[in-house]
């Protein structure tokens, strides 16, 4: 599939890209939901009949689902397109630095001013790039420290690293959900991750340097 324009809007994400996003995101959120009661015993009182042993097994099952679902999409989907998208997300350009400096102002700016601040943005703005890099790095570290807990036990350095990494990612995840579902300037991007397409006018306003191919 290509990113050509049509009367329905602009194709932002292919089926493979969307499947990879949701496989990764759903598995990741399931891991957080199953892991937090193991980390924070106070949360267990909110779950009737909670068993730490069952909780550990559920957490492990979520981890297996997360890894297999993500790898499955990569194995069966368009890896070339995914590779190009990851390359775009990993490439920080000179225009990204001033955008990041203006980010606090961008969050509260009026629509007209926000569009002006976005005038140098391509397919992804600097915030989306930083979020993608941060997510891949922290998810990889969580996977490594989580695997290390099995042979080395639930005590000591690996447990503490896993715990602090988990707490570290909660605020960025909440921010990502807010920007995707609530913020007036970016919530339109959610349709791109649901059906692949975004509004043509929105794309031209907030991603003017993006030229779909």
Structure notes:
69% of the residues lie in helices and 3% in strands. It has a single domain, classed as Transmembrane di-heme cytochromes, Chain C (Fumarate Reductase Cytochrome B subunit), CATH 1.20.950. Strands 1-2-3 form a 3-stranded antiparallel sheet. It has 213 residues and is mainly α.
Q: What is the domain total for the residues?
A: 1
Over all CA atoms, what is the radius of gyration?
19 Å
User: Mean pLDDT, rounded to whole units?
Assistant: 90
Which regions have little confidence, pLDDT < 50, spanning 5+ residues? Answer: 1-7
Percent range for β-strand residues: under 5%
At the fourth level of CATH, the homologous superfamily is Transmembrane di-heme cytochromes, Chain C
Order of helices and strands: EEHHHHHHHHHEH
Query: Main β-sheet: number of strands, strand sense, barrel status?
Result: 3 strands, antiparallel
Sheet/helix structural class: mainly alpha
Q: What is the CATH topology?
A: Fumarate Reductase Cytochrome B subunit
Report the strand count.
Answer: 3
Summarize the structure.
The chain is mainly α. The protein has ten helices and three strands; from the N terminus they run ββαααααααααβα. A three-stranded antiparallel sheet has the order 1-2-3.
Question: Which features characterize this protein?
Answer:
globular, 213 residues, mainly alpha, Fumarate Reductase Cytochrome B subunit, three-stranded antiparallel sheet, disordered N terminus
């Amino acid at each position: 599939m290509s990113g050509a324009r049509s009367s329905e809007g602009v194709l932002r994400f292919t089926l493979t890209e969307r499947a990879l996003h949701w496989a990764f995101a759903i598995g990741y959120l399931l891991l957080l939901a199953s892991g937090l009661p193991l980390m924070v015993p106070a949360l267990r009182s909110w779950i009737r009949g909670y068993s730490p042993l069952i909780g550990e097994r559920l957490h492990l099952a979520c981890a297996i689902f997360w890894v297999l679902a993500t790898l499955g999409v990569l194995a069966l989907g368009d890896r070339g397109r995914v590779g190009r998208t990851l390359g775009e997300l990993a490439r920080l350009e000179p225009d990204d630095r001033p955008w990041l400096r203006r980010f606090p102002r961008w969050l509260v700016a009026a629509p007209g001013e926000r569009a002006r601040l976005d005038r140098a943005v391509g397919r992804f703005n600097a915030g989306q790039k930083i979020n993608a890099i941060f997510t891949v790095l922290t998810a990889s570290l969580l996977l490594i420290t989580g695997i290390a807990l099995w042979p080395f036990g639930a005590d000591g350095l690996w447990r503490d690293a896993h715990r602090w990494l988990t707490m570290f990612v909660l605020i960025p995840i909440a921010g990502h959900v807010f920007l995707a579902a609530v913020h007036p300037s970016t919530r339109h991007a959610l349709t791109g991750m649901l059906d692949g397409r975004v509004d043509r006018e929105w794309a031209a306003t907030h991603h003017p340097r993006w030229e779909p191919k």
